[in-house]
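Reopening this one. Same input as before:
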Amino acid sequence: MSTIYCTHCAAPAVAGSAFCAQCGQALGAGLAVMPGQAVEDIKPRLRTSIPAFVRRQLRPDEQVLAAFSASLFDHHRKHEIRHDKVLLTTERIITYRTALVHKSMSELPYNMVTGVVYNRGLVHGKLVVEAANFGLTLSRLGNDDAALAERIIAGSVAGRRYRAS
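Same output, byte for byte:
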């Protein structure tokens, strides 16, 4: 039997436990990982350019796996739909907006994600990402792009490791 580890604090966890004994993080299905898992190569899918102010925020060993334009709906800003950009890296989801005067960026580390659901549409897919105090819907993504985003996010939450090839 293999040892499982909390994705939040990396402490060994007891199989079948609902919460980490060290930090209290929920250990729901797929949230505990085994060390030494193989790294999967992903060919980066860059559907939009990444501005310098976002590139400067990337860590030296953080790789970009995908970049898309999307309509974003933040579940905490109920009536606000924005057309922004989404960047998936080896460590986190980054959303950003560029305008003539205003630039903004936010991030959601994969270890904070509690669920992700992909809804396939006729042409465009929709991805719903949930975290403890955050919810984000990404829509107007091509179905292939939405499926790749779901694979990266769900895989990262489950402890899979990716590398841009």
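So the earlier flakiness isn't reproducible anymore. For the record, Residues 143-157 form the longest helix (15 residues).
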